[in-house]
């Protein structure tokens, strides 16, 4: 997915929000915003928005002298979600359709996205849970479950810290012995890394790997060979969040995208309204012999 003009002010807003959150010195804020303005002026808008965000957040980490500037925010929302887990698990178990309820709650967790909002309150998380349980769902949960049952290997692409606690509910509806969950290879915004997956207890359920990259999405060209092998071998990929949709929606692979549409650009691309709950199967299926990872083209 390309970067649209509407994405440019959003990326600048991300920059300012990060500066405010970090309480960076005025001189650092000024330098960072000016650098980002210069980069955005000459940016290649044919690239997905997460590619531009990667460069911005590398600068934020460099100028703030913090390897993981959002670490305390990630811990806060992980602790909040873990505290809700027993209640949410009971909600799934008591529902007339546990798989669909688990899917809805996994989508509710997608609200924990500081790349889109910049800030988030606990009240907004609770509101997202209520909304997800009652709002219409665009997509067929049974289609996902049937695809999961038929798959020999499933790769689940996580999105944000805190959100992955909600993902546990959906993971438990899948054949866990065939699932591998992937997190980011290095901190970027509040995306989950291995430390966050462990804090969420994901490693006790399924194998956890990282993708070797610091893109707030899954840009195959920057991922590690280990991740690319898992991606190539997976019969089914489940991709959480807008960043994964933006970077993988044109990739020839059987992918189910799970997200809440949180901005007008994504909503327009998906043909939905902002706030809608989305389960969307990719229309770009791989052809025989096609390798989207490029591994087959590399010299051993």
UniProtKB/TrEMBL annotation:
InterPro entries tied to this protein: ARMT-1-like_metal-bd_sf (IPR036075), ARMT1-like_metal-bd (IPR002791), PH1575-like (IPR014444)
Name of one Pfam family that matches: ARMT1-like_dom
Gene3D superfamilies: Uncharacterised protein PF01937, DUF89, domain 1, Uncharacterised protein PF01937, DUF89, domain 2, Uncharacterised protein PF01937, DUF89, domain 3
SUPFAM superfamilies: AF1104-like (SSF111321)
Boundaries of every Damage-control phosphatase ARMT1-like metal-binding domain copy: 4-277
Protein name, UniProt field: DUF89 family protein
Record organism: Trichloromonas acetexigens
């Amino acid at each position: 997915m390309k970067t649209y003009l509407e994405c440019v002010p959003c990326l600048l807003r991300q920059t300012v929000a990060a500066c405010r959150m970090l309480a960076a010195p005025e001189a650092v804020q000024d330098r960072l915003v000016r650098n980002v303005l210069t980069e955005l002026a000459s940016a290649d808008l044919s690239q997905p928005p997460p590619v531009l965000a990667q460069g911005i957040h590398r600068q934020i980490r460099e100028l703030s002298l913090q390897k993981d500037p959002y670490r305390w925010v990630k811990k806060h929302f992980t602790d909040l979600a873990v505290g809700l887990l027993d209640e949410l698990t009971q909600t799934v178990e008591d529902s007339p359709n546990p798989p669909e309820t688990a899917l809805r709650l996994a989508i509710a967790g997608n609200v924990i996205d500081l790349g889109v909002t910049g800030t988030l309150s606990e009240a907004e998380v609770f509101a997202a849970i209520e909304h997800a349980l009652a709002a219409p769902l665009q997509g067929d949960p049974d289609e996902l479950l049937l695809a999961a049952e038929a798959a020999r290997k499933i790769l689940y692409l996580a999105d944000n810290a805190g959100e992955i606690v909600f993902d546990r509910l959906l993971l438990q509806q899948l054949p866990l012995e065939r699932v591998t969950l992937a997190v980011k290879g290095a901190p970027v915004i509040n995306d989950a890394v291995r430390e966050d997956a462990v804090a969420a207890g994901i490693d006790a359920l399924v194998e956890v790997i990282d993708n070797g990259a610091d893109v707030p999405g899954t840009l195959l060209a920057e991922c590690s060979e280990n991740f690319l092998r898992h991606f190539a071998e997976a019969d089914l990929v489940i991709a959480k969040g807008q960043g994964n949709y933006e970077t993988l929606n044109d990739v020839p692979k059987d992918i189910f995208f799970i997200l809440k549409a949180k901005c007008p650009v994504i909503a327009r691309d998906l043909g939905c309204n902002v706030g809608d709950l989305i389960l969307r199967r990719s229309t770009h299926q791989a052809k025989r012999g096609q390798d989207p990872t490029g591994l087959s083209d590399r010299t051993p």
